[in-house]
Design goal:
Elements (H helix, E strand, L loop, with lengths): L7 E5 L6 H14 L4 E5 L5 H10 L8 H25 L3 E5 L2 H10 L5 H11 L7 E5 L3 H9 L12 H14 L3 E4 L7 H17 L9
Parallel strand pairs: 1-3, 1-4, 2-3, 4-5
Helix pairs in contact: 1-8, 3-4, 3-5, 4-5, 4-7
Length: 215
């Protein structure tokens, strides 16, 4: 019986924040401790989702935010049913790069949709599994802009203005269940952020009931 076994943990944040690197480091740490870990991501995760992921991230393809949000919700349901839920039931620690908060940021808060459409998107996504822990990686605006400038050519349809994006993520994190907010500085190395995550998770783990996993 391990504290992280059978858990669903999500990593969220703007493109270039370092969330994917942190997820990989955390996965390596858990594996070294003996946990069985599944790394997955959105958009994608399922075979169908991975097949269309390049088109979803392509900023040159025309789209409207409402249809995009419904498409992401459909893929999310497929991902949960085919990948996440079976792995959690098998006692694996599932680490997911992006989840519902990304929809709330890019399609709801930054999508410019009418209130009725926003409420529909929120309602659909409220039906999905709530992660045990959601880690928001939110560096300062200047640091994030610098990181993005160093990644020229890495264009993403989900990317928005740095200030607006960070503000939207903070708004979502303030009310999202099981949220851990990390704010790495420009001097932090990936392992510094990993240490910050470990410190932030310690009190949360004390409040989580252990999960018994059948051998």
């Amino acid at each position: 019986m391990e504290f992280f076994s059978g858990r669903f943990i999500v990593f969220c944040g703007p493109n270039g924040a370092g969330k994917s690197t942190l997820l990989r480091l955390f996965a390596d740490t858990l594996r070294a401790a003996g946990d069985k870990v599944l790394e997955t991501r959105e958009p994608g995760g399922s075979p169908f989702g991975e097949a269309i992921r390049p088109h979803l991230k392509n900023p040159d393809l025309p789209r409207d935010k409402f249809s995009e949000a419904l498409l992401f919700a459909s893929l999310r349901g497929m991902h949960l049913h085919q990948v996440v839920e079976p792995a959690v039931a098998a006692g694996k620690t599932v680490l997911c790069d992006r989840y519902v908060p990304s929809t709330l940021v890019y399609q709801v808060l930054l999508g410019g949709l009418p209130e009725s459409a926003q409420e529909m998107i929120r309602a659909v996504n409220s039906q999905f599994r709530v992660p045990d822990i959601t880690v928001f990686v939110l560096p300062g605006a200047a640091d994030l802009a610098k990181r993005r400038s160093n990644r020229s050519g890495d264009r993403d349809a989900m990317q928005a203005d740095v200030e607006e994006e960070l503000q939207a993520y903070r708004q979502v994190a303030n009310s999202y269940p099981g949220a851990v907010v990390l704010e790495p500085s420009s001097t932090d190395m990936p392992f510094d952020t990993l240490e910050s995550l470990a410190l932030a998770l310690a009190p949360m783990l004390a409040g989580l009931a252990p999960v018994d996993v059948a051998a």
